[in-house]
UniProtKB/TrEMBL annotation:
This is GH32 C-terminal domain-containing protein. Belongs to the glycosyl hydrolase 32 family. Keywords: Glycosidase, Hydrolase. It comes from Bacteroides vicugnae. Residues 139-440 form the Glycosyl hydrolase family 32 N-terminal domain. InterPro entries: ConA-like_dom_sf, DUF4980, Glyco_hydro_32, Glyco_hydro_32_C, Glyco_hydro_32_N, Glyco_hydro_beta-prop_sf. The keyword Hydrolase applies.
Length: 626
């Protein structure tokens, strides 16, 4: 990923920059801070000749304090920050006003004896170098801090804009901003300052972006319009608008926000997806509304009219439907035969517990979505445990590219990373295909991922009767590689392989042909114990996820599986990075995405067979890198 190692940020643009264990800082000699402590309820930090940043020490398990950069403006907003009480896990930077002679930061709810008051620093610079063992090599992550859902995905002027739910002030959920990265190839990402910051209306929750080519909103032809949910306990969840005239770098919030509120006062009303419906020359917005999706239309992108709803009683009925998307796709590549796919992210509801992505196929007439299937039919876009909040880029013409968040709400706040938390799974190209008279959504890694290949090790074909060992996949393996295999089943009933390292940590991937399953087992994949502390949703206190998964130990240590057709040949494309394994079967007809945390890279393989032999007809191991 392209990064700028030392970055200055303007006032209020709390950052896309990393600060962690190996912090390097440069203190301006004139700048000075003094503390005015008014009991445990309020501490005022007075700063003269401010440096670029005040570096805040964070303790992840500390209670949140409210930190306010006081500029005297009505838009000044508290940030909830876990200031260090007894130890410092890492630092986060808070940008100070550029060119000011003084600055004031007010901190509420932090005790006078907290360690943070001794460790707090002023700095003009800080190092964004990766210090985290499990930071991926080729997957998108924030430079530091917390990330969840991808937001506002849009393509314009040769750039893919990836906005995302972002907390600049710690590696746990909170203070939702829209973080921002851009790419020209969906592989190399440049980190930019956050595009939309939380404000007095609330957190900036998920949403979507469009290019207003015809200037229907009045901000100029080609403006990027962002639609997002403003969320707070005080104001509820309402849909808002912001516009950008500089190719998505900065946004101005619409002065008449919100543009859409729930007519029935619904509490969970969020994640607007806006798209163009050409047959009626209008725009459509889908909003998650509890356990259904509500459809609205507009001619000017500001005034929205209710049309219909869909979802009540369909598929998995979890606590809440979230992050909707809807795209029209050719069936089996036939341009003149199309259907709509409605993507619905659910939490909880995953087959194996926690969050996941289901979808429905059907017809949309500009007003209503009519599903092809009966309500009790559930279709999953991915059969792993770490695939959620999948949404698609807008303005990509005939191409449909989606990006998932690669984690699960059961344990996302406690995975063993500190400098950052969460990555995006690989961008995936979506398509519709038929199988046994049913319509399904495929998800294949975008073609651009082939540019990641830096070295190819071709392994001659072989037959597996019992065990077949490969003692070394790649020399100096840093944990980032791709395995492409073509397999002929023969008479085998179980055919698979273990990926493992010298410490015995392993991932098992195998076909159980009598049961028609593709399985990935991560129970012995490395660091798994944190799964004992995962927190299932209160409505998921049943045992179904334990019996549906294989080898269940806890909500992380388990095996996931996908239903497959019994065929003579299978093609597997498997992407491994420092903390993930993504499996794509037969061109993405089956996808399975799972996190792993090995103490060192898996660089050895053992193929095995039960009930007969199978052949590996071709096998290529590609070293991957940016």
């Amino acid at each position: 990923m392209k990064t700028t190692p030392w970055i200055k940020l303007c006032k209020g643009a709390a950052l896309a920059l990393a600060v962690s264990y190996g912090l390097t800082y440069c203190h301006t000699t004139k700048s000075k801070l003094t503390l005015e402590q008014k009991g445990d309820s309020l501490t005022v930090i007075h700063i003269t000749y401010p440096a670029n940043y005040i570096l805040l020490p964070i303790e992840e398990e500390a209670m949140e304090s409210q930190v306010l950069l006081d500029t005297g403006e009505a838009t000044d907003t508290d940030m909830d920050i876990r200031l260090a009480q007894t130890k410092v896990d890492y630092f986060v930077p808070l940008a100070l006003p550029a060119g000011a002679k003084t600055a004031t930061v007010r901190v509420r709810n932090k005790s006078k004896d907290a360690l943070c008051w001794k460790e707090i620093k002023l700095s003009d610079t800080f190092d964004t170098a990766n210090t985290d063992k499990f930071r991926p090599v080729y997957h998108h992550t924030p430079l530091y801090g917390w990330m969840n859902d991808a937001n506002g995905l849009v393509y314009k002027d040769g750039e893919y804009h990836l906005y995302f739910q972002y907390n600049p002030y710690g590696s746990k959920w909170g203070n939702m901003h829209w973080g921002h990265s851009v790419s020209r190839d969906l592989v190399h990402w440049e980190h930019l300052p956050p595009a939309i910051a939380c404000d007095t209306l609330g957190h900036i929750f998920s949403g979507s972006s469009v290019v207003d080519k015809e200037n229907v909103a009045g901000y100029g032809a080609g403006s990027i319009l962002a639609f997002y949910t403003s969320a707070s306990d005080k104001n509820g969840q309402n849909q808002c608008l912001a516009f950008s005239k500089d190719n998505g770098r900065t946004f101005t919030k619409y002065e008449k926000n919100p543009i859409l509120c729930p007519s029935d006062g619904l509490k969970d009303f969020r994640d607007p997806k806006v798209f163009r419906y050409e047959p009626e020359d209008k725009w459509v917005m889908i909003v998650s509304a509890d356990k259904e999706m509500r459809f609205y239309d507009s001619k000017n992108l500001k005034d929205w009219n209710y049309m219909s709803s869909f979802g009540e009683g369909y598929g998995v009925q979890p606590c809440q439907f979230e992050c909707p998307d809807m795209v029209e796709l050719p069936i089996d590549g036939e341009i003149n035969r199309k259907k709509w796919a409605l993507i619905v992210n659910v939490n909880p509801g995953c087959y194996f517990g926690g969050s996941a992505t289901q979808y429905f196929t059907g017809n949309f007439d500009g007003t209503k979505f009519i599903c092809d299937n009966q309500p009790n039919v559930t279709k999953w876009l991915d059969w792993g445990k770490d695939h959620y909040a999948t949404v698609c880029f807008s303005n990509t013409s005939d191409r449909t590219v989606a990006i998932p968040w690669m984690s699960n709400w059961q344990y996302c706040n406690i995975v063993p990373t500190k400098q950052f938390r969460s990555a995006n799974a690989l961008p995936r190209e979506l398509g519709l295909y038929t199988q046994d008279g049913e319509l399904y959504l495929s998800a294949a890694p975008v073609a651009e991922t082939k540019t990641l290949r830096k070295e190819n090790k071709e392994i001659p074909s072989f037959t597996v009767s019992n065990d077949y060992h490969i003692d070394s996949l790649l020399t100096d393996n840093n944990g980032a590689y791709e395995l492409a295999l073509e397999i002929t089943t023969g008479k085998a009933e179980i055919m698979g392989f273990s990926l493992f390292n010298d410490k015995g940590e392993k991932v098992d991937i195998y076909f159980n042909l009598p049961e028609k399953r593709l399985v990935m087992d991560r129970t012995k994949s490395g660091i798994v114990d944190f799964g004992k502390n995962s927190v299932p949703h209160e409505i998921e206190a049943h045992d179904r996820r334990k019996t549906t998964s294989i080898n269940y130990i806890d909500d992380f240590a388990l095996a996931t599986w996908a239903p497959i057709k019994k065929e003579n040949k299978y093609a597997l494309d498997i992407f491994i990075d420092k903390c993930s394994v993504e499996i794509f079967l037969n061109g993405g007809k089956i996808a399975m995405t799972n996190l792993v945390f090995p103490s060192e890279p898996y660089n050895r393989m053992c193929f095995y067979s039960k009930g007969g032999t199978f052949n590996v007809d071709s096998f290529n191991a590609y070293r991957l890198g940016l």
